Amino acid sequence: MPRFVYDFAEGDKDQKDLLGGKGANLAEMTNLGLPVPPGFIITTEACRAYLADGAEPDGMAAEVTEHLATLETAMGRRLGDPDDPLLVSVRSGAKFSMPGMMETVLNVGLNDASVHALAARAGDDRFAWDSYRRLVQMFGATVLGIESEHFSDAVEAAKKAKGTRNDLDLDAGDFERLVETFKGIVREHAGRDFPQDPREQLDLAVHAVFDSWNSPRANLYRRQERIPTDLGTAVSIVSMVFGNLGMDSGTGVAFTRDPASGARGVYGDYLQNAQGEDVVAGIRNTLPLTDLEQLDKTSYDQLMDIMTTLENHYRDLCDIEFTIERGKLWMLQTRVGKRTAAAAFTIATQLVDEGMIDLDEALRRVTGAQLANLMFPRFDRDAEKKLLTTGMNASPGAAVGAAVFDSATAVARARSGERVVLVRRETNPDDLDGMIAATGVLTSRGGRTSHAAVVARGMGKTAVCGADELEVDVAAKRFTTSDGVEVAEGEVISIDGTNGEVYLGEVPVVASPVVSWFEGTLHEGTGDDLVDAVARIMRHADETRRLNVRVNADTADDSGRARRFGAEGIGLCRTEHMFLGDRRELVERLVLAESRDEREKSLAALLPLQMEDFTAIFREMEGLPVTIRLLDPPLHEFLPDLTELSVEVALARERGEVDQEREDLLVAVRRLHEQNPMLGLRGVRLGIAVPGLFAMQVRAITRSAAELAAQGVSVHPEIMVPLVGTVQELQAVAAEIAEVVAEPESHVNGAPVPHQVGTMIELPRAAIVAAQIAESAEFFSFGTNDLTQTTWGFSRDDVESSFFSEYLEQGIFGVSPFESLDVEGVGHLVELGAREGRRTRPDLKLGICGEHGGDPDSVHFFHRVGLDYVSCSPFRVPVARLEAGRAAV
Ligand code: PEP
Ligand code: MG
């Protein structure tokens, strides 16, 4: 029978799957001998069982009783004892941290009797009644599902009656009356009394934490962060310590380094005479942690020592929650802290320099998503700007958008294509939709550890927090600066999450220094710490990775940029892009040609143009392989739109102006029109159906390559045939290619210019019969866009904007299979194709050129199944290099 409950002393930090992140780290700190209030953890396994069956698993209640008894013995008090109560907090803690997404209930064990005992023990009536009203409030909102406004409105009313705006002015009597009011609210809205039985409070709170795993906001957060939906949360039951026992008590959060820049120092916020969530919620403005040294030097020194211990132990930036109860420091939480992308790189290299970790570990600690984040543009320092205010630089980046004041408006405006900045006094988990929709978040309250800051950093979204000179009026949809400037909904503002500045209007943006470094216009060792850190880690990734990284590019410009970004060749040059613009007419003539002669004329006219294209790309990629794909899309894509042309011809007829050329064109467009062009006349089918088309393209490739080779340029063309389903198709095209290669113009020094012929694997059939296809292919490149489309039967152009959001919402997918490879299905075919292909041809070169080539998770998969390279769009080349390195350590 599985165990469902563990004491802190029984766990360790590596048991996050079972004990959740919070529980595992509380256990670790306990075993490090740090001052952690005693407690125990109910496992994620119990949560999963509860969620599956709608009831606690057998045996859990007895285990809770047993561990509670041990805790009561250790503390010398019984839960909710009317004479001397033990109080506990009930805290959620999943494997991955989900800040503010799930529930916590504090002060469990208080009731009408024990509140008096608590007051007597603390010698403080106000404290006891404040704690009790907090319990009823949290219990009501969290466990009984009552709208939290009912409670906060009652607090506001109490303050108003007292003529104050500050919680601290409320006295014991006020809180006692609030408890009564709150109990009334519970009775009215939950249809039951607030439970007086401490164990019932505890059990219901645990169930509420379990249930909160499936709350809509937690689901949304997990989708955003790609956290699996079936992990469940653990629950930590911790004996209460109190930060609200007077001015010698308080609660705070701290980082061992600056989570924004990675700089060492003392970072954090402290709030005197406050409990639990007050700091994170940004309810009152906090003091900087450094002020604690004056307030309580003993606790401050001890905290500094503990922070050093934790950094050395975890060998990483840690974030910490602590409480001081009448001068005694307690550690309530630690975890390896969330950080900005820039800090991730700088901290990783700092730790290498400090000898704490090696470069492999540094590489593991950064991600491609973080690198991508650093490649975003920033505000132009030299641009003229109107500064409105400065807040805290909570999450870096440059965001420009229309100011909006609520989540729903943010979502609605973003949906219609507008960029918006969400402006709030503070955010809470209900603002998540709006935060996702917005390009940036601005708050007037709360510090670097407020909900807005933590969540924005996690999402890689720009945020400025605690801009407390701003008067934000959510109801009137406007904010006012201290100089009286008013900004109403819809007015554009620019926020700089790197320095905390907020500007009126749109500030122009410039390239990031990391991109400048990739481009070669900014150098390592010239004073930019971030560039130095990125350079060092990229170098190590390149030394470590086995996968090559190529680029999908079809212009000389893109090829050049990608080469500077580290591309080691072109994995996909889509030639269809070369048939657009003013060449469209030539293609149109080709499509409409009625005789061989006409067709050959059009092909002859296209040949020199294609040669120019390839020559420019070969030059740019000198010395590197260039995979050129023969024409893929349906021909009608190069013709006018059927509906538009039909209308035009009909109107002309009505006017009596019959234009025979347009009439003929309409007939051809009708003939070529397909209901489902993605599954029609495209790819290799086109090459077989339109004689001479592929030969012309191959001629352009081999001739331009031969010409360059004759000039001493090192060229490595690879000719790629798309959408092959059977080896016979490939054989037909290969024969045509061989004829072209035999032409003297394709020769250099009397021999055919060196080249390879290969195919894309983008149909399930191709993957299944890969062993046969490999007989005629020197390389395979998996076209995972089409392979996803054809494996799932999803139209890649349609489904993402139709039912995918519903699928994501319902958790049918964690992420779109077009974005991140569906490893089980499509990945299985990739694995099969690779294995079968190499069975025939052990030296078969294997690559992937679908969008997944630049997706971090997918890159790890391609590494695992033994591909030789991934190919992706130019901007993702650095990301793929980094992830390929990470996959190899
Ligand atoms: C693919 O299908 O994965 C591919 C790279 O080709 P395209 O996206 O051009 O169809
Ligand atoms: Mg394709």
Notable traits:
eight-stranded mixed β-sheet, Dna Ligase, domain 1, D-amino Acid Aminotransferase, Chain A, domain 1, 6 domains, 18% strand, binds phosphoenolpyruvate, eight-stranded parallel beta barrel, alpha/beta, binds magnesium ion, 889 residues, 45% helix
Concise summary:
The chain is α/β, with parallel strands linked by helices and 889 residues long. Phosphoenolpyruvate binds at residues 572, 574, 632, 762, 783-786, 849-850.
Structural notes for this entry:
This protein is α/β, with parallel strands linked by helices and 889 residues long. It has six domains: 5-239, ATP-grasp fold, A domain (Dna Ligase, domain 1); 250-336, D-amino Acid Aminotransferase, Chain A, domain 1, CATH 3.30.470; 341-372 and 513-533, no CATH class; 376-510, Phosphohistidine domain (Glucose Oxidase, domain 1), CATH 3.50.30; 545-634 and 674-888, Phosphoenolpyruvate-binding domains (TIM Barrel); 635-673, no CATH class. The protein contains 35 helices and 35 strands. An eight-stranded mixed sheet has the order 14-24-23-16-17-18-19-15. The chain binds phosphoenolpyruvate and magnesium ion.
